[in-house]
TrEMBL record:
One of its GO terms (molecular function) is 2-oxobutyrate synthase activity. Residues 14-240 form the Pyruvate flavodoxin/ferredoxin oxidoreductase pyrimidine binding domain. CDD domains: TPP_PYR_PFOR_IOR-alpha_like. It comes from Thermosphaera aggregans. Keywords: Oxidoreductase. Heterodimer composed of an alpha and a beta subunit. It is an enzyme of class 1 (oxidoreductase). The keyword Oxidoreductase applies. Its EC number is 1.2.7.11. This is 2-oxoacid oxidoreductase (ferredoxin). GO terms for biological process: response to oxidative stress. It holds the Pfam family PFOR_II. NCBIfam families: PRK08659.1.
Length: 372
């Protein structure tokens, strides 16, 4: 391992390379552009390829193709770019193509304020495309966690054959902090499951874990990548039985792994009467406020989900015991709606800090005090 000083975007890039990234395709867009710039210098030195595509539509389809060719692939973007990737991400879901998308949130709607921050895209990464599906999403709050959760994102993507988001924002992308860069032999790296034999191979026939082994192109396997509802061979199957079977399996392979997928951090929860819930860069300020209020004797707890989707509802109900829950986020209360649903037996309040900058301690305090 080596100790460096890095930004959040560099940490994601380093984490991706540690996880085995070999192909990156992207299009420059603030505030994710320097992630691609860093990889353009570093990834070719480590045996990988970086291509600047003509747009985000080409980028998402290029990494889907590279993944099907057998390499770990990734792109990075921000709000307007992710909008263009919606159709391609749907293709990756139904063809069970492992890819990682680093999404750096910026202010919107539309082009909004390209250089400013937000947390308004958390439902976008959850329900970007049409149909029934679950795309795992991880939200780091530090440079070190951006590195660590990027490795986790690649491991989840390869193990479950699914797209995965690493969800950052303009603040975290460009904050600089100490980073411990771990080498591949120092962390767990998961590679996709290969079929045992060419004979009888069916590209969508799952094992007991509901995940089919994935053969790359050009190795003698009969591979069919089909975007229509398909059977185990990949042939179009427009009937109720195959549709239910496919869509149910696509979701269940994710939910079955919920104990492994869901990561969180809790502080001062044992005696908490009031629990703050926050994620990403905003959680840093909320945690500081929780510590400040506890120093005055207030029984304040803090719960921070690192995994935004899927949420582990059982863990949240068992862990968050306070009578009053205050969800603080830089949007109009999106995660708050899910917390309200999950913790329906408690008082749940949404404290929005809608702000183009990283909210100050004073601003967060003003947002929560009306509920205290």
């Amino acid at each position: 391992m080596r100790k460096v000083f890095a930004s959040g975007n560099i940490a994601v890039a380093e984490g991706a390379m540690t996880a085995g990234l070999k192909f990156y395709a992207g299009y420059p867009i603030t505030p994710s552009s320097d992630l691609m710039e860093y990889l353009a210098e570093e990834l070719p030195r480590r045996g990988g390829v970086v291509i600047q595509m003509e747009d985000e539509i080409a980028s998402i389809n290029a990494i889907i193709g590279a993944s099907n060719a057998g390499v770990k692939a990734m792109t990075a973007t921000s709000g307007p770019g992710l909008s263009l990737m919606a159709e391609g991400i749907g293709l990756a879901v139904i063809t069970e193509t492992p890819i990682v998308i680093a999404h750096v949130m910026r202010a919107g709607p539309s082009t909004g304020v390209p250089t400013k921050t937000t947390q308004s895209d958390i439902y976008m990464v959850r329900w970007l495309t049409h149909g029934d599906y679950i795309i795992p999403s991880f939200a780091p709050w530090s440079v070190q966690e951006a590195f660590d959760l990027t490795i986790k994102a690649f491991n989840v993507s390869e193990k479950l054959r699914t797209p995965v988001f690493i969800l950052s924002d303009a603040i975290l992308a460009h904050v600089w902090e100490p980073l411990v860069v771990k080498e591949p032999g120092e962390v767990e790296i998961i590679d996709r499951k290969m079929p045992k034999s060419v004979e009888g191979y069916m590209p969508y026939l799952p094992d007991e874990d509901l995940v089919p082994p994935m053969a790359p192109f050009g190795k003698g396997f009969k591979v069919l990548v089909e975007s229509l509802v398909h059977d185990e061979k990949g042939y179009y199957a427009p009937n109720n039985e195959k549709y239910r079977q496919l869509v149910t399996r696509l979701n269940m392979k994710i939910t079955r792994s919920l104990d492994w997928l869901f990561e969180y951090e809790g502080f001062f929860l044992e005696d908490a009467e009031i629990v703050f819930v926050a994620y990403g860069s905003v959680a840093r300020t909320v945690f500081a406020l929780a510590k400040q209020l506890r120093s005055t004797g207030a029984r304040i707890g803090f719960f921070r989900p690192k995994t935004l989707w899927p949420l582990h509802e059982k863990v949240m109900r068992e862990t968050i015991k306070g009578r009053k829950i205050i969800v603080v986020e830089n949007n109009l209360g999106k995660l708050g709606m899910d917390v309200e649903r999950i913790l329906c037996d408690k008082e749940v309040y949404k404290a929005s800090v809608l702000n183009l900058e990283s909210p100050t301690l004073k601003e967060v305090k003003e947002a929560v005090m009306q509920w205290l």
